[in-house]
């Protein structure tokens, strides 16, 4: 029987540290020295490359990217230029925005209509219940009125506002649809999901409508003040007071007085040609038209006041 020596687990020959040097710490091995030396030489190469780059740099070097770059934390960062847009470009973009929002709103409303056509609203689930009025001839019929008999259906199906079969249909035809409890539960869950989707789409369509109204209002506010008309003053009565020279006049609409100056470019086309319109002439036309209406003039006098 031969005896085998146990295999050595040491990677190389090591020398025990003398007892007199234990206070200095562990003895550095060759692999530790190799790691430290490689790290030192790698750092020296980097420093030498940077020194060479500094020596070779041209002080007069310039390229256009230097204008739009700046150094932050040792890294070159490109400066972002602010977009300079004209008012016309902004108006075009706002028009595109309201067109896009309106397009998405119309698409959402079509999806809502399609979902409504696929789903049946139950009276038990809706807050606002519909009413069905039946007309009879005498009070006795009102007292003896039986809804199940009048609708020719079972009393259990009276509260059902959709798919309410008659008694003849129940006798002649078998029950159609799912009758397994598991299938009924699955269908009820699917219907609930569809109703939730419909509710979310309705809310989304309302928000889109509000957004489009805000964009339109912002767009209208940017128009010149001379071309803007307040909605509350569209149907209000108009009275005008102006001097005969037509230099300027006061326009009163529902208690709101505004100053109106004549414009030499404003003209009105009529059967006698074009004439210049000023505040004074406009007020005069209104007064003449009112007098013609009082004396019952012709339609031409009512529609086209004379100078």
Could you describe the 3D structure shown?
This protein is mostly helical and 307 residues long. Helices cover 45% and strands 11% of the residues. The protein has helices at 30-56, 87-118, 139-143, 147-151, 167-172, 181-221, 279-294, 299-303, and strands at 69-72, 75-78, 238-242, 248-253, 256-261, 267-270, 273-276. Strand 1 (69-72) and strand 2 (75-78) form a beta hairpin. The chain is elongated and about 125 Å long. The N and C termini lie far apart (143 Å).
What is the element layout, followed by pairings?
Elements: H1 30-56, E1 69-72, E2 75-78, H2 87-118, H3 139-143, H4 147-151, H5 167-172, H6 181-221, E3 238-242, E4 248-253, E5 256-261, E6 267-270, E7 273-276, H7 279-294, H8 299-303
Antiparallel strand pairs: 1-2, 3-4, 4-5, 6-7
Helix pairs in contact: 2-6
List keywords for this structure.
mainly alpha; 45% helix; two-stranded antiparallel ribbon; elongated; 7 strands
Count of extended strands: 7
Instruction: Tell me what portion of residues adopts beta-strand conformation.
Output: 5-15%
- Which runs of at least 5 residues are low in confidence (pLDDT < 50)? 122-127, 233-280, 297-307
Cα distance spanning the termini: 143 Å
Average pLDDT metric: 72
The radius of gyration computed from the alpha-carbon positions, rounded to a whole number of angstroms, is 45 Å
Strand order of the largest sheet: 3-4-5
Short description:
The chain has 307 residues and is mainly α. 45% of the residues lie in helices and 11% in strands. It starts with 29 loop residues before the first helix and ends with a helix.
